[in-house]
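Reopening: structure tokens for the magnesium ion complex, inputs below.
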Amino acid sequence: MSDRMQPVVSLKGVTRSFVQGGTRIDVLRGVDLDVMPGEIVALLGPSGSGKSTMLQAVGLLEGGFGGTIALAGKRAEQSDSRARTELRRDHLGFVYQFHHLLPDFDARENVILPQLVAGHTRDEAIIRAEELLTALGLGARMDHRPSQLSGGEQQRVAVARALANRPALVLADEPTGNLDEATSDKVLAQFLELVRGQGSAALIATHNERLAARMDRVVRLHEGKLEAVETREALAR
Ligand code: ADP
Ligand code: MG
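Re-run output (same inputs, fresh job):
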């Protein structure tokens, strides 16, 4: 199969249960999902439905999952922890609800660091960081540390960091969930434009149906499984 036809990520029968206070909760009960290259998928579901759990599964951040997860054709559950770390580094970018930027580094440096880890030269990394931060309207904020930035600006830096290595798949867990509505809309629009512009795929958890309707496809977690959601906007595309 050519790379073009191969899903960026493929989940088959993914399960995850937690035991808490003697009670077992089956959060994921057999999740199937293929995300194709360049496809932007919204993951809907109310709080507690398992969105973060599912993104952790796709992000290869935790064990304890049943079923299979293939990232760029490589089976995660058959990889050891070093191989999983390499899969994450080579194929994934993350945006969380809280920015998780390094507090002692300025915006530019926060976007440079993951590129150095991935083996880019410092000169390349600086150019890429400045290009992304400028595209996100932070051209005048590159020397600011996270504490010197607003919530929306912090999330923009987090977006730049996630996209810095042009990952095949960007995972975002309610990336604008902490922002007011106007800022959230603006940051999400910029995020989607950059993701589309560089041809990355994305899986974006949100409980906001209005934001979800801007993406290519919408799926919803319901009773531990994924169901397709048809929106007028998604159909019109
Ligand atoms: P969402 O992101 O959609 O709000 P989560 O994936 O965070 O949902 O949580 C889904 C369910 O799994 C919740 O009932 C939550 O309490 C439970 N859960 C998540 N992580 C853990 C954990 N580490 N230990 C026990 N229960 C957990
Ligand atoms: Mg969550």
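The CA atoms of residues 141 and 206 lie 27 Å apart. The chain is about 35% helix and 25% strand. Marking as resolved unless the reporter disagrees.
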